[in-house]
Amino acid sequence: MSEQQRQATVQRMEQAGLVAIIRASSNQGLVDTCRALVEGGVTVAEITMTTPGALEAIRTARQELGDSCLIGVGSVLDSTTVDQAVEAGAEFVVSPVFKPEVVQASHKHGKPVLAGALTPTEILAAFEAGSDLVKVFPANHFGPQYFKDVLAPMPHLKLTPTGGVNLNTVNDWFAAGARCLGVGSALVKKDLIAAQDWVGLTDLASQFVDAVKASRQ
Description:
alpha/beta; TIM Barrel; 4-stranded parallel sheet; globular; Bifunctional 4-hydroxy-2-oxoglutarate aldolase/2-dehydro-3-deoxy-phosphogluconate aldolase
């Protein structure tokens, strides 16, 4: 059953098209941030382990938001963190690098994993080791053309960029073959969170959702 659940989660991420990456300097307002994103139509969010109190934030967000938002954990570097994050309620795991132990631990819990890779060799290795989507990171240095170049000889790969995703590039990334997009500071703006401008964040989220819809039509 966990295999089916895992695939269903991946499908939900691909259909949503956006994964909001929440990398904050404190855990204040993290649940409000998630709530504002959901109200704008962004229903998948990743809380990074570099955020103070990340595990507690994941646990609280899952309790308060339920199924309205798919909450995952980011910046995961080892299997122990996978275990802790899943116990806290994380529904998917994201890493900036490819480590087999992270893939194995995630799958042991029936959770999808997005391993990080950059070169074609790393990307293929991560995918063949079971990474459900491969997070190309940092993608901003190469841009959408790099996805086209990598996918030309290996069209079976499932890639998602982190870095270089903003309102102006959404269409380019999907046109290049991205399955979904990881969006950090262009969406989860620190100044909006610091000012507790949840209306502003909801508005920005809806702009991203509209951009995804437009690019897929």
